[in-house]
Amino acid sequence: MTVALDRVALHHVAITVTDIDASATWYTDVFGFVELTRDEHFGGSGGYAVVLGKPDWSMFVVLNHHPTNAGETFDATRTGLDHVGFLVTDRAQLAKWEDRLSDKGIKHSPITDHDWGSSLNFRDPDDMQLQFIAFAHTD
User: Fold this and answer.
1) Claim to verify: residue 48 and residue 23 sit in the same structural domain
2) What is the CATH number of the domain that holds 121?
3) Does residue 3 sit within a domain?
4) Mind listing the pLDDT tens digit of every residue in the chain (139 residues)?
5) Which of 4, 5, 46, 64 has a CA that sits 20 to 30 A from residue 99's CA?
6) What is the DSSP letter of 14?
7) Does some domain include residue 78?
8) Quick one: 21 and 47 in the same domain?
9) Torsion of CA 50, 60, 114, 139, to 10 degrees
10) Is 86 buried (19+), middle (13-18) or exposed (0-12) by CB count in 10 A?
11) How many domains does the chain have?
12) Element (H or E) spanning 53, and its range?
C-alpha cells in the first residue's frame, strides 16, 4: 500500500552562533523578527536557544549557544550547512532587501539573475551565508 505524503515546506532553521545576544539583535533588526522564547537545551548541557521569528510562529530561526563551542567562524566548505535561503515574492522585493542591507551596512552580493529567478547573498555576524531568492514568474 502506498501512503500519500503531504507536501513539505521548510519551517525553521536552527544554527549555532558564537555570541547569542549579538546574533539575536542582528536577526531581530534585519528581519524584523521578535523573540518567541528562550529555552535551555535538554539534558542539562548548559546550552540554550533563543527562538526568533514571526509572532504567529509561521517561520522562525533558532539561535543556539553551546558551552563547548570553540568560537570558530562559519565555513560553508566544511561538511554541514552551506547557507540558508529565504523566499521573497519577486525581484522588486529583492531590490528592497538589497537597499535594506545597504542601509544597515551589511555586506552583500549584487542581485544575480538566473534561468530560474534571482538571488541576493549576505552574511550574518558569524559569517554564515544567507540568501534571498525570488523565482521567475512564468505567467
Assistant:
1) yes
2) 3.10.180.10
3) no
4) 666 667 667 778 999 999 999 999 999 999 999 999 999 988 888 899 999 999 999 989 999 999 998 888 888 888 888 889 999 999 999 999 999 999 999 999 999 999 999 999 999 999 999 999 999 876 5
5) 64
6) E
7) no
8) yes
9) -170
10) middle
11) 2
12) strand 48-53
